[in-house]
Write a structure and sequence with these properties.
about 425 residues; five-stranded parallel sheet; about 30% strand; globular; binds flavin-adenine dinucleotide
Length: about 425
């Protein structure tokens, strides 16, 4: 009987397990995760998990699949099981407990790890990546009143929003000149910065964190622009791919584990998917690595089919969302600096879509509270569509109609 091993306890590995069974694989499936818990969703960890009483009983509401599902699908989940080494020639994995496991094919879905940076201090300076971190953060948020968040990326902004809504005093420290600048650009970043400020968050931009020092009254964050005092510091400052297993096995890496469009690595029978994978994308014709829940899930399914000999590439648009206060940010696609930016809707009313165009094609959309626009673009992003900037900007036009292939070729006037 064949044995397929899935390394990781996130959506990529779990989607792979489900797809293997859906596609009729009747061999052994072992899912190994270093986490102590069954595979769970991470997105709620910076949002509802921190303050919603429905999560006070633990993680079960976040499980990607129930314990029964694994039993019914013959998937053996080994929690608290870190893989320490991969030997592609022998097709064997070494585990942290000293044992080893042979495989016929293995999927590396090991996600990302926090970048080393600020020194963590027990219960005072904590980071947020895992359920373990989130549980500690939730416990500390119950008593801490002055929260300092380091890093104005998505996780930092989400934690700041949640803590602020809990009535905490929040200081958000960011090195760039606006929040979310790297992900959304300076224009949209400024809008989001204003949102946080209007919610009472003190946003310190252009500020470099030097160190954190524990004291009797809490903790002091030393920055190049002076000290910030608080009870609790949450570090949300960047991640890097957890690609060490591949790297030490001599498998090609570079901004993650390098794969082709079928999630195959440079070693036979070794596949990679999710946040850790830097995969060739047939539409963009280059390698791309993203850190999005939806992409991890979909790529896990593609990897599973490839493990069974399938040849369906991962060729989806990359989509993600972020919830902050009552606002939802969504984005799909990728743009180049030379693409033209068209704003649809009202920045002031916090209901707009930023749409990037290359000639008459949409390359990317980032929207605040306009999910329908994003879904419309998601559907047509990789189709041979054609739109006019003024039609996109006109709120009288339903983007879904505008981007419908039959309509888009009908132009009122020649260009
Ligand atoms: C707090 C937070 C909020 C987020 N919010 C959003 C959001 O709103 N929207 C969105 O699109 N995305 C969000 N994300 C990102 C999203 O969660 C990830 O893109 C997704 O989880 C990636 O899935 P994955 O399967 O690739 O890896 P992960 O879910 O990161 O799982 C990796 C797994 O590999 C295991 N592992 C690592 N090394 C080993 C080893 N050597 N041996 C065994 N196991 C190992 C880990 O323990 C872990 O279980 C968020 C992430 C976090 C942390």
């Amino acid at each position: 009987m064949k044995r397929f091993v899935l390394v990781g306890g996130g959506p990529a590995a779990v989607a792979a397990a489900g797809t293997l069974r859906e596609e009729g694989f009747d061999g052994e499936i072992a899912l190994l995760t270093a986490d102590q818990e069954l595979p769970y969703e991470r997105p709620p960890l910076s949002k509802a998990f921190l303050d919603d009483p429905r999560h006070s009983d633990g993680l079960s509401a976040l499980y990607l699949r129930s314990p029964q599902w694994y039993a019914e699908h013959g998937v053996t989940v080994r929690t608290g099981t870190a893989v320490t080494r991969l030997d592609p020639a022998a097709r064997r994995l070494a585990l942290a407990d000293g044992s080893s496991l042979a495989y016929d094919a293995v999927l590396l879905a090991t996600g990302v790890r926090a970048k080393p940076g600020v020194r963590l201090i027990d219960d005072k300076v904590i980071r947020l990546r895992s359920a373990h971190d989130a549980t500690r953060l939730r416990d500390r948020l119950a008593t801490a009143t002055r929260i300092i968040v380091l890093g104005g990326g998505f996780i930092g902004c989400e934690v700041a929003a949640t803590a602020s809504r809990m009535g905490k005093t929040v200081v958000l420290v960011e090195r760039a000149s606006s929040l979310l600048e790297r992900a959304l650009g300076a224009d949209l970043g400024r809008v989001l910065t204003d949102v946080h400020r209007s919610e009472g968050v003190q946003v310190k931009l252009g500020t470099i964190v030097l160190d954190c020092v524990s004291g009797a009254d809490g903790v002091t964050v030393r920055t190049d622009r002076g000290d910030v005092e608080g009870d609790l510091v949450v570090v949300g400052a960047g991640c890097e791919p957890e690609d060490r297993l591949a790297d030490t096995a001599g498998i090609a890496t570079g901004n993650g584990i390098v794969t082709d469009e079928l999630c195959r690595t440079s070693a036979e029978a070794v596949y990679a998917a999710g946040d850790v994978a830097n995969s060739y994308h047939p539409f963009y014709r280059k390698h791309i690595r993203v850190e999005h829940h939806d992409s991890a899930h979909r790529q896990g399914a593609v990897a599973a089919r490839a493990m069974l000999g399938g040849a369906e590439p991962y060729a989806e648009p990359h989509w993600f969302w972020s919830d902050q206060y009552e606002h939802t940010i969504q984005q799909v696609g990728r743009s180049e600096p030379t693409d033209r930016l068209v704003i649809r809707g009202s920045l002031e009313d916090l209901s707009f879509s930023a749409v990037w165009l290359r000639e008459d094609r949409i390359t990317r959309i980032a929207a605040l509270n306009r999910p329908r626009d994003v879904m419309a673009v998601r559907k047509i992003l990789f189709t041979n569509h054609s739109v006019r900037a003024e039609d996109v900007a006109d709120m009288g036009n339903d983007l879904r109609r505008l981007t419908r292939p039959a309509r888009i070729v009908q132009r009122k006037e020649p260009r």
